[in-house]
TrEMBL record:
One of its GO terms (biological process) is protein transport by the Tat complex. It is found in: Cell membrane; Membrane. This is Sec-independent protein translocase protein TatB. Part of the twin-arginine translocation (Tat) system that transports large folded proteins containing a characteristic twin-arginine motif in their signal peptide across membranes. Together with TatC, TatB is part of a receptor directly interacting with Tat signal peptides. TatB may form an oligomeric binding site that transiently accommodates folded Tat precursor proteins before their translocation. It comes from Methylocucumis oryzae. It is a single-pass membrane protein.
Length: 107
């Protein structure tokens, strides 16, 4: 993100030495390191939470798509069953009609 080279770090250290003084510089460096560590940990935590939320949203979308697919499959199954029932009833009706016609012709 930030490209800081050795010369820039050396310049910051020199300015810190002049501003803070040599007695308090180690303490300031420790506190600064502590706060930078905390900031990094916080950023890592935030990134992990964002990733988890994105993953959860993807899962919700997949579940919604799967539910739609299941509804379509259930509808297709019902339609297939209705078609099979209709064919069976139609064949039975045709067979009954043929029997009636044959019985009237025989009389």
């Amino acid at each position: 993100m930030f490209e800081v080279g050795f010369s820039e770090l050396l310049m910051v250290a020199l300015v810190a030495l002049l501003v803070v003084g040599p007695e308090r510089l180690p303490k300031v460096a420790r506190v600064t390191g502590l706060w930078l560590g905390r900031a990094r940990n916080m950023m890592t935590t935030v990134k992990a939470e964002i990733q988890a939320e994105l993953h959860a949203e993807e899962m919700r979308q997949l579940i919604k798509e799967q539910a739609s697919l299941n509804e379509l499959q259930a509808f297709e199954s019902e339609l297939t069953n209705a078609s099979a029932n209709f064919k069976t009833e139609l064949n039975q009706s045709v067979a009954d009609t043929v029997k009636q016609v044959n019985s009237h012709e025989a009389d």
